[in-house]
Structures are given as C-alpha cells and as structure tokens.
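Quick one, probably user error.
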C-alpha cells in the first residue's frame, strides 16, 4: 500500500490523502541502534496537477522510539515535516515514472524522512550523559592553593 496517485483523479480537482503508511511499505532501511521504528508514518496531504507536474503538499509525522546518544535513556519523539512539499515533473529529463496512470509518492517521502532523521538523538538538549560514579569515588578532590601572580608586585613600594 504505497502512496500511489492516479493521475486521472487529478484531472478534475486536487485530492486529499490522509492515513498511515506501514514501515514495511516505507522501506527506510535504517540500521541505527539508537532509533527504532515501530509505528506507521501518518500523512495528511493535498495532491494537485499543475500543467506538466504533480504537486504534493502537507504534513508527515513519524513516531520514533530512541535511545539517547549520551545517557542511553529511552525516550519517544516524533519526526515532524510540516509544510512538506514534493514537485514531480511529468515531462522532461527529471520526469517521474508513471505506471498505469499512477505516480508513486513513496520515494519522495522516504528521501525527506531520511534527510530529517536525528543523527545523534538526545533525550533533552542539555543531557550531560552517563555519570561515571566509580571513577568519581576513587579520585579525591584536593584543593590546590591559588597562586597570586601579582603578590610580588603588591609588595613593591613605589614613591
């Protein structure tokens, strides 16, 4: 169930697409240990025919289950593409493949999802990471006296 659009349906007016696309259909091929994809992509799109192209606009939302790259804590987030748009020419060098009067939006959605994936997911921006308690308990904090480099100058008496 990929996102295929029948061009004949676009001849009269724009169409609205709203639904979910399973991860198997999206075929992202993500092998990241910190990002887990288990829920489907939700989409809300408007597709219209423009002269010699198809224009799809709308929003994409992909729930992500991640592990923080610093502290390894599990957290949930969403990859949101609001204002997403894809312009697919029907003629010329860059024309999209047409099969049985249908154009497939899936490759365009896949590409933009992959480009917006978090490279280093963080549970929160200020995460400091794992705390090494064993190393901290083994080292004793010794306060060193602060050397005043100006002390010798302060002893000078200039008249």
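Nope, works fine. Designed sequence:
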């Amino acid at each position: 169930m990929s996102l295929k659009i029948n061009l004949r349906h676009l001849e009269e007016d724009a169409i609205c697409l709203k639904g979910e696309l399973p991860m198997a259909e999206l075929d992202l091929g993500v092998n990241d240990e910190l990002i887990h994809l288990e829920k489907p992509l939700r989409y809300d799109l408007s597709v219209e025919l423009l002269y010699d192209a198809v224009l799809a606009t709308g929003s994409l939302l992909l729930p992500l289950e991640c592990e923080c790259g610093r502290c390894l804590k599990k957290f949930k987030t969403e990859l949101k593409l609001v204002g997403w748009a894809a312009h697919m020419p029907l003629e010329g060098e860059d024309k999209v493949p047409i099969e049985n009067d249908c154009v497939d939006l899936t490759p365009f959605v896949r590409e933009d999802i992959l480009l917006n994936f978090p490279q280093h997911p963080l549970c929160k921006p200020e995460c400091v990471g794992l705390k090494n308690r064993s190393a901290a308990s083994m080292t004793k904090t010794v306060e060193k006296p602060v050397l005043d480099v100006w002390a010798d100058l302060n002893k000078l008496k200039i008249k």
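The chain is about 20% helix and 35% strand.
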